[in-house]
Design brief:
Blueprint: E1 5-8, E2 15-18, E3 23-29, E4 33-40, E5 43-51, H1 56-72, E6 76-82, E7 92-93, H2 104-112, E8 115-116, E9 127-128, E10 138-139, E11 142-147, H3 149-156, H4 164-186, H5 190-210, H6 214-242, H7 255-267, E12 272-274, E13 280-282, H8 284-296
Parallel strand pairs: 5-6
Antiparallel strand pairs: 1-2, 3-4, 4-5, 6-11, 7-10, 8-11, 9-10, 12-13
Helix pairs in contact: 1-2, 3-4, 5-6, 6-7
Length: 297
């Protein structure tokens, strides 16, 4: 392949190649990741290459390890590879709707490590099951994530003139501006998204009551997954806003967890049923009477 150096992790699932001009030092490795420190032309960065296992329980150690790496090193951090997990329902096409509960631990790791997805070029999807057209599934499993310290460092290092205090003021202003621009373009208004998705879910719930088809159920599942993700972002915002990084288990009182409980209650409750005459029956007492009448026939 023309590279001067190569490295493989213990189970040969991750292969790394680099040129002579690059100084690479392997910091640590496991069956799911290899973390390397790279020095090129005076620039030091930390890159973690991952090949995540398919079984969800095996990923927990990896996410925890990524958090530890983020805490231990002050270098600009990149994480790249096959995460075997999507972060948004739109990153899957075909098959059954994606349940965002499968992605929550990965999303939590991304937020805890202040990682961002800088985007990509080319195809949206990086994996396909290769099945026939009507059973084909596409997903975006491969990505690169960058620690927020990288864009912050670039914004802060912009040359400015003036007294030390004035330079500090300009650097701080420029950094805040860049972060605001990134937030608007990458995240948007998280509170508006929550309101819109709540309304969307309500509309689809009403729709499925009147027309309980597979397509409508799929749309509702998709909307619910987007709503859960919106709640998760809102929860993260309030954590950062309050200055509290960790919440003690059992003390979290966010809309995200309320939504989970509320969703369970909704699934276990009946708002209305259709009677034998085709008319809708509402109210707990009337529903109970109709149910007794139906089973006594």
């Amino acid at each position: 392949m023309g590279f001067a150096n190569a490295y493989s992790n213990s189970n040969c699932q991750i292969l790394i190649f680099w040129d002579e001009a690059v100084d690479c030092r392997v910091v640590e490795e496991s069956e799911q990741k290899v973390t390397c420190s790279f020095n090129w032309m005076g620039t030091n960065i930390l890159i973690t290459f991952v090949y995540v296992k398919c079984i969800a329980d095996f990923r927990k150690d990896l996410w925890e390890n990524v958090k530890n790496i983020s805490d231990r090193y002050s270098l600009s951090q990149y994480i790249a590879g096959d995460f075997d997990c999507i972060v948004d329902p739109v990153e899957k096409q075909g098959g059954s709707p994606h349940r965002m509960s499968k992605s929550l631990s990965f999303l939590q790791c991304i937020m805890d490590c202040d990682l961002i997805d800088p985007g990509y070029s080319g195809s949206t999807f990086t994996w396909c099951n290769g099945w026939q057209v009507d059973k084909r599934v596409w997903k975006r499993l491969d990505r690169i994530l960058v620690n927020m310290s990288e864009p912050v460092e670039r914004a802060w290092n912009v040359e400015v003139q003036g007294s030390p205090m004035w330079r500090f003021h300009l650097k701080l202003k420029n950094t805040c501006k860049k972060l605001s621009e990134w937030s608007r373009s990458s995240i948007g208004n998280i509170f508006e998204k929550v309101i819109k998705m709540e309304e969307k879910v309500r509309e689809l719930e009403e729709k499925i009551i009147n027309d309980n088809t597979d397509m409508n159920r799929g749309e509702l599942n998709h909307a619910n997954s987007l709503l859960i993700r919106a709640y998760k972002k809102e929860e993260s915002f309030w954590k950062q806003k309050s200055g509290v990084k960790w919440f003690v288990q059992g003390e979290v009182n966010s809309r995200f967890f309320h939504s989970i409980i509320k969703g369970r209650k909704k699934r276990l409750s009946l708002k209305k049923i259709r009677g034998n005459d085709g008319n809708w029956i509402e109210g707990e007492e009337e529903i109970a009477k109709e149910s007794v009448f139906y089973f006594q026939k």
